[in-house]
């Protein structure tokens, strides 16, 4: 049975738009776990555009399942992670000007730096995941860095239109998941996944966890946070034979 981790960053994005104290991403995490989510994800960015340091600290006290902190491989963030001690740290690329993470971490191109960061986090007894593009060289590099988990970047697949290119991208995800599993890595997937496009990925047994945020937060505006999480959880766990009737329909 696959797991679902819910990213609550964009609850904080809405809060920061007004610079006040609501909506609270901690409360969103509580509702997500109440609905059955297996884990909570937050990305503490250098520019603090959404999640704040206090959010991370409070979440460490509140979250009952796995707390996954996404972070750039910087001295500041590694220091914060070592202090807060989330259950998992996921290293991601980060640029100030980007709207959201634009691609996977180039582990192969910065092997020694990433290897050192992974070692430091593991010494703090934190499980380490690397957010990477579905490419064999990146998976092999992640294995060489002694990461325990890889999260495959699904953004290109999710953005592609139906047709040959989308099928190629889906095949690349499948091949990458198989390679990562053969190398002993736990395989997760995330970025851009929603009720309409996640279906084909659910047929890949090597992927054991899905990281989903924006689509759940967006749907929660119309059906509530618990319901939005429950709908996605039903698909991920194979409990639903069809999409929820309220969900927009579009051919894949």
Write up this protein.
By secondary structure, this protein is of the alpha/beta class. It has a single domain, classed as Alpha-Beta Barrel (TIM Barrel), CATH 3.20.20.70. 43% of the residues lie in helices and 17% in strands. The chain is built from 10 helices and 8 strands. It has an 8-stranded parallel beta barrel, surrounded by 8 helices. Strand 3 (66-71), helix 4 and strand 4 (88-91) form a beta-alpha-beta unit. The protein is globular and about 45 Å long. The model is unreliable at 239-252 (pLDDT under 50).
Number of helices: 10
CATH architecture: Alpha-Beta Barrel
Strand order of the largest sheet: 1-2-3-4-5-6-7-8
Beta strand % = 15-25%
Structural class: alpha/beta
Q: Give helix % range.
A: 40-55%
Separation of termini?
24 Å
As for the CATH topology, it is TIM Barrel
Overall 3D shape: globular
Structural domain tally: 1
List segments where confidence is low: pLDDT < 50 over at least 5 consecutive residues: 239-252
Largest sheet: 8 strands, parallel, barrel
Rg computed from alpha carbons, rounded to a whole number of angstroms = 17 Å
Report the CATH superfamily: Aldolase class I
Reading off the top of the CATH hierarchy, the class is best stated as Alpha Beta
Order of helix and strand elements from N to C terminus: EHHEHEHEHEHEHHEEHH
Mean pLDDT: 92
Number of strands: 8
In short:
The chain is 43% helix and 17% strand. By secondary structure, the protein is of the alpha/beta class. It has a single domain (3-236), classed as Aldolase class I (TIM Barrel, Alpha-Beta Barrel), CATH 3.20.20.70.
């Amino acid at each position: 049975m696959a797991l679902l981790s819910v990213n609550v960053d964009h609850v904080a994005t809405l809060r920061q738009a007004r610079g006040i104290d609501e909506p609270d991403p901690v409360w969103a995490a509580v509702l997500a776990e109440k609905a059955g989510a297996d884990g909570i994800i937050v990305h503490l960015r250098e520019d603090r555009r959404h999640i704040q340091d206090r959010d991370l600290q409070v979440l460490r006290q509140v979250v009952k399942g796995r707390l996954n902190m996404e972070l750039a491989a910087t001295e500041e963030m590694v220091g914060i992670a070592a202090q807060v001690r989330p259950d998992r740290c996921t290293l991601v690329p980060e640029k100030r000007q980007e709207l959201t993470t634009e691609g996977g971490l180039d582990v192969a191109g910065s092997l020694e730096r990433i290897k050192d960061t992974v070692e430091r986090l593991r010494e703090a007894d934190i499980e380490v995941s690397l957010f990477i593009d579905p490419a064999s060289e990146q998976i092999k590099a992640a294995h060489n860095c002694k990461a325990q988990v890889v999260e495959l970047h699904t953004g290109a697949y999710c953005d592609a239109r139906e047709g040959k290119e989308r099928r190629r991208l889906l095949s690349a995800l499948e091949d990458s998941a198989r390679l990562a599993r053969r190398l002993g890595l736990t395989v997760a997937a995330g970025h851009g996944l929603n009720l309409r496009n996640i279906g084909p990925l659910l047929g890949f047994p090597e992927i054991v966890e899905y990281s989903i945020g924006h689509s759940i937060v967006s749907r929660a505006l119309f059906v509530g946070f618990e319901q939005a999480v429950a709908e996605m959880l039903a698909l991920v766990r194979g409990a639903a034979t069809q999409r929820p009737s309220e969900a927009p329909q579009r051919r894949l």
